[in-house]
C-alpha cells in the first residue's frame, strides 16, 4: 500500500508539473496583451486541482480496485463457474448509474467552475481598486456583492458534492439488490439441484463481497471522473506537448538581440493617443540604434516603444525588422526597455551564462548618434 501511494504521488506530481507549466507557458506567451490573471489563478488553483482530485486520483483508485476484483473473481470461478458468473453479472449493474448521471454531474461541475471564476474576479477587482472604491463609499455594496458571489460559489460546491453523493447512493441500493438475488439463486442450486455445496456458496458469497465493494467504488470513481469531462477537454491537451515543444527558452528567447537587427522600418504608422492626439511615424532606423525620444508627458514616447515591442498595434501601417536584407518579423519583437511605472516583484536573473554581469550603459551615448523625434 505504501509503495502504491508513493508511486501514485510521484506520477501525479510529474503530471501536475507538466500540465500547469504548459498551461502557464501557453497563457503567458500566446499574446502580448495583458490577460485576466484572476481567471488564470482560478484555473491553476481550482480547475487543474479538480482534475487532480476528481480524475487522476480516481484513476489510481480504479486500478487498485480492479486488482482486488480480479483476485476475488479468480477465487469465485474456481469454486463454481456458473454461480460465480451470475454473481458477477449482477455486480456489474451498478456501473450503469454513473453513465445515467453523467450529464448531471458534468453540469454541476461546470457551474462550480464558473462560480469560482466569478468569485475570484470579484476579489481581484475589489483589492485592485481598493482606494477608488473606498473614495466612493460603496463598502456596503462591495460586501453585499462579495457575499452573493461567495454564496453562489458554496451553493455550487454543495450541488457538486450532492450529485456525487446521489450517484453513490443509487449505486449502493442497486448493489444491495444485486447482492441478494444471486444468493437466492445459489440457495436453489444447493437445495434442489445438489450440484453446489453450501460451503462453496458461502465462499462465493463472501468473495463476492470483495467484488461488489470494488465495483461500487469503481462506479463512484467513474461518476466523480465524469464531473471533469469538459475540464479535461480544455486542459489535458497540454500533456500532449512533446519535449521539444516544451523547451520554452528555445521557442521564446527572453529578449530579442538587437545585434541581429540592422534596420527597423516604421512604415506610415498611425496611432491615437489617450489625449486624443494622433501619433504618426514614418522612418527607417539603422544600426547602431541610438535614439533619444524627447517630449512632454503624454506626447507618445512610451507609445512608440510599445509599438516597436508589439505591445500596441498601430491603427495603420506596420513595423518591419530586417537583418542583412532578410525580413525577421513584423511587430511582435521583444526588445528590453525600462518602464516608467513597472510592476514586478520578481527577481529575474537576465545574465547570459558567458558573462558574470550585464552592463546597462544608458549615460555614455555618443551625441553623434542621438536622434530627436519630438522637439
From TrEMBL:
GO CC terms: plasma membrane
Topology in membrane: Multi-pass membrane protein
Principal place of residence: membrane
Protein's cellular compartments: Cell membrane
Superkingdom, natural source: Bacteria
InterPro entries noted in UniProt: ABC1_TM_dom, ABC1_TM_sf, ABC_transporter-like_ATP-bd, P-loop_NTPase, Type_1_exporter
One GO MF term: ABC-type transporter activity
TM annotation in the entry: 66-97, 169-192, 198-224
Annotated keywords: ATP-binding, Membrane, Nucleotide-binding, Transmembrane, Transmembrane helix
Domain ABC transmembrane type-1 intervals: 40-227
Listed PROSITE patterns: ABC_TM1F
Tagged with keyword Thylakoid: no
Record PANTHER family: ATP-BINDING CASSETTE SUB-FAMILY B, ATP-BINDING CASSETTE SUB-FAMILY B MEMBER 6
Protein's name according to its UniProt entry: Drug efflux ABC transporter, ATP-binding/permease protein
Lineage, uppermost ranks: Bacteria, Bacillati, Bacillota, Bacilli, Lactobacillales
Amino acid at each position: 500500500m505504501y509503495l502504491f501511494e508513493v508511486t501514485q504521488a510521484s506520477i501525479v506530481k510529474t503530471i501536475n508539473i507538466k500540465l500547469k507549466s504548459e498551461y502557464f507557458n501557453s497563457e503567458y506567451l500566446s499574446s502580448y496583451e495583458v490577460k485576466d490573471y484572476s481567471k488564470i489563478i482560478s484555473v491553476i488553483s481550482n480547475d487543474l486541482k479538480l482534475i487532480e482530485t476528481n480524475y487522476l486520483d480516481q484513476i489510481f483508485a480504479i486500478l487498485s480496485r480492479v486488482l482486488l476484483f480480479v483476485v476475488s473473481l479468480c477465487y469465485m470461478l474456481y469454486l463454481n463457474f456458473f454461480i460465480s458468473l451470475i454473481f458477477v453479472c449482477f455486480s456489474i449493474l451498478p456501473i450503469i448509474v454513473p453513465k445515467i448521471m453523467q450529464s448531471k454531474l458534468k453540469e454541476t461541475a461546470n457551474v462550480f467552475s464558473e462560480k469560482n471564476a466569478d468569485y475570484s474576479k470579484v476579489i481581484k477587482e475589489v483589492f485592485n481598486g481598493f482606494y477608488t472604491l473606498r473614495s466612493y463609499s460603496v463598502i456596503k455594496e462591495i460586501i453585499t456583492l462579495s457575499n452573493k458571489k461567495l454564496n453562489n460559489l458554496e451553493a455550487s460546491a454543495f450541488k457538486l458534492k450532492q450529485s456525487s453523493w446521489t450517484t453513490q447512493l443509487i449505486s449502493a441500493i442497486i448493489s444491495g439488490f444485486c447482492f441478494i438475488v444471486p444468493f437466492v439463486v445459489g440457495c436453489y442450486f444447493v437445495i434442489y439441484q445438489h450440484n453446489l455445496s453450501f460451503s462453496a456458496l458461502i465462499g462465493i458469497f463472501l468473495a463476492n463481497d470483495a467484488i461488489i465493494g470494488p465495483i461500487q467504488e469503481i462506479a463512484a470513481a467513474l461518476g466523480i471522473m465524469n464531473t471533469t469531462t469538459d475540464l479535461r477537454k480544455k486542459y489535458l491537451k497540454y500533456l500532449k506537448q512533446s519535449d521539444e515543444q516544451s523547451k520554452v527558452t528555445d521557442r521564446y528567447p527572453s529578449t530579442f538581440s538587437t545585434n541581429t537587427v540592422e534596420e527597423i522600418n516604421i512604415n506610415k504608422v498611425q496611432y491615437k493617443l489617450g489625449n486624443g492626439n494622433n501619433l504618426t511615424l514614418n522612418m527607417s532606423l539603422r544600426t547602431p540604434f541610438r535614439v533619444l525620444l524627447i517630449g512632454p508627458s503624454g506626447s507618445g514616447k512610451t507609445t512608440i516603444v510599445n509599438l516597436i515591442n508589439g505591445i500596441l498595434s498601430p491603427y495603420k501601417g506596420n513595423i518591419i525588422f530586417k537583418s542583412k536584407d532578410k525580413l525577421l518579423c513584423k511587430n511582435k519583437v521583444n526588445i528590453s526597455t525600462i518602464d516608467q511605472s513597472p510592476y514586478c516583484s520578481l527577481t529575474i536573473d537576465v545574465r547570459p551564462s558567458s558573462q558574470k554581469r550585464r552592463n546597462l550603459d544608458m549615460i555614455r551615448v555618443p551625441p553623434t548618434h542621438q536622434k530627436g523625434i519630438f522637439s
